[in-house]
């Protein structure tokens, strides 16, 4: 699974409006930026209490990206 | 939450009407049929009330979903990973087998915890109510618990011998609990958590009021 697909997979499992989950990947030489945007009312679900959900997604993302020897950074677009 | 209620004679027909009115298929709804008292002298047959609400996923579906989500995430980290899920009491348990590299566990289990948290959020979302998911990777949690229990018992023995308290390294709540439970029936010692947040740790102390023949 690509990093973009991974984030899309997780986000869609967490929100009320999966059809409004949009993920784009901006590839750099060593670092990819994964941009995630969701319906406004789902933003809280993606971030979580004290940012816990976003933090967990970042943990999974960085575990997955060491496999590819490429860093990936998650940005949540508000 | 009941969405709609209809009264009539033929429950099947009432269900069809409800489906039609709500624009839902039969499989999306859960029905309850309430029988009313028999009609006047039984002349009109029994009247029934049918009400409907959205059907939540069955336990089986939830468990499959937990497995699917866990495996999907795990495979992004370790392509050969396999997950199993089952129910244990009220909890849903998930066990992941990876490539043994520890990538699914992470430093001090942080990847494992992130997996557990996200699976439980996704499952609770699907179930429309809070569900507890406990997840393990390659038996990490089990081994960690066993080694903590062993360590706690060794230290308790030392406390009994010396009469001096010892501190375990800072641990999170679930791990402190393992220590408390491991020592709750051990004679001559007691446990207490002290400190706050990240620095909270368990102390093992000689139990007060127990004569040991030594003085501090």
Structure overview:
Chain A has one domain (3-77): 2-Layer Sandwich (GMP Synthetase, Chain A, domain 3), CATH 3.30.300.20. Helix content of chain A is 42%, strand content 24%. Chain A contains 3 helices and 3 strands; from the N terminus they run H-E-E-H-H-E. Chain A has helices at residues 3-14, 43-47, 52-67, and strands spanning 22-27, 31-37, 71-76. The mean pLDDT of chain A is 92. Chain B has 216 residues and is an alpha+beta fold. Chain B folds into 3 domains: 4-54; 59-138, GMP Synthetase, Chain A, domain 3 (2-Layer Sandwich); 143-206, 2-Layer Sandwich (Ribosomal Protein S8, Chain: A, domain 1). In chain B, the strands form 3 sheets. Chain B has a 3-stranded antiparallel β-sheet, with helices on one face. In chain B, strand 2 (29-38) and strand 3 form a beta hairpin. Classes of the chains: A alpha+beta (78), B alpha+beta (216). At the A-B interface, helix 1 and helix 3 of A face helix 2 and helix 3 of B.
pLDDT < 50 stretches of chain B:
none
Q: What's the helical proportion of residues of chain B?
A: 25-40%
Largest sheet of chain A: 3 strands, mixed
Main sheet: strand order of chain B: 1-3-2
DSSP helical segment count of chain A: 3
Strands of the widest sheet of chain A, in order across it, are 1-2-3
Anisotropy-based shape of chain A: globular
CATH H-tier superfamily of the largest domain in chain B: K homology (KH) domain
* Assigned CATH class of the largest domain in chain B: Alpha Beta
Q: Briefly note the structural class of the backbone of chain A.
A: alpha+beta
Number of spatially distinct domains of chain B = 3
Topology:
The complex is a heterodimer of chains A (78) and B (216).
Chain A: H1 3-14, E1 22-27, E2 31-37, H2 43-47, H3 52-67, E3 71-76
Parallel strand pairs in A: 2-3
Antiparallel strand pairs in A: 1-2
Helix pairs in contact in A: 1-3
Chain B: E1 4-8, H1 11-22, E2 29-38, E3 46-54, H2 59-77, E4 82-88, E5 91-97, H3 110-127, E6 133-137, H4 140-162, E7 166-167, H5 173-183, E8 189-194, E9 201-206
Parallel strand pairs in B: 5-6
Antiparallel strand pairs in B: 1-3, 2-3, 4-5, 7-9, 8-9
Helix pairs in contact in B: 2-3, 4-5
């Amino acid at each position: 699974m690509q990093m973009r697909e991974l984030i899309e997979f997780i986000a869609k499992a967490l929100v009320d409006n999966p059809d409004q989950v949009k993920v784009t990947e901006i590839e750099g030489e060593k670092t990819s930026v994964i941009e995630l945007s969701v319906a406004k009312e789902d933003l809280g679900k993606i971030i979580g209490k004290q940012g816990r959900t976003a933090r967990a997604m970042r943990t999974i993302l960085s575990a997955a990206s060491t496999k590819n020897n490429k860093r990936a950074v998650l940005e949540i677009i508000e | 939450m009941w969405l709609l209620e209809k009264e009539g004679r033929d429950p099947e027909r009432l269900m069809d009407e409800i489906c039609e009115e709500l624009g839902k298929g039969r499989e999306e709804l859960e029905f309850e049929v309430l029988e009313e008292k028999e009609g006047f002298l039984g002349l009109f047959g029994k009247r029934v009330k049918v009400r409907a609400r959205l059907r939540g996923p069955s336990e089986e579906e939830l468990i499959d979903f937990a497995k699917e989500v866990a495996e999907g995430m795990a495979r992004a980290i370790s392509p050969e990973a396999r997950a199993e899920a089952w129910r244990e009491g009220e909890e849903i348990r998930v066990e992941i087998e990876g490539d043994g590299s520890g990538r699914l566990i992470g430093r001090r289990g942080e990847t494992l915890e992130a997996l557990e948290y996200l699976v439980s959020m996704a499952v609770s979302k699907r179930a429309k109510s809070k569900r507890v998911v406990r997840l393990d990777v390659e038996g990490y949690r089990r081994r960690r618990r066993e080694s903590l229990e062993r360590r706690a018992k060794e230290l308790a023995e030392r406390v009994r011998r010396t009469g001096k308290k010892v501190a375990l390294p800072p641990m999170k709540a679930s791990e402190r609990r393992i220590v408390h439970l491991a020592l709750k029936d051990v004679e001559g010692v007691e446990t207490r958590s002290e400190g706050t947040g990240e620095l909270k740790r368990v102390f093992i102390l000689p139990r007060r009021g127990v004569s040991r023949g030594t003085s501090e």
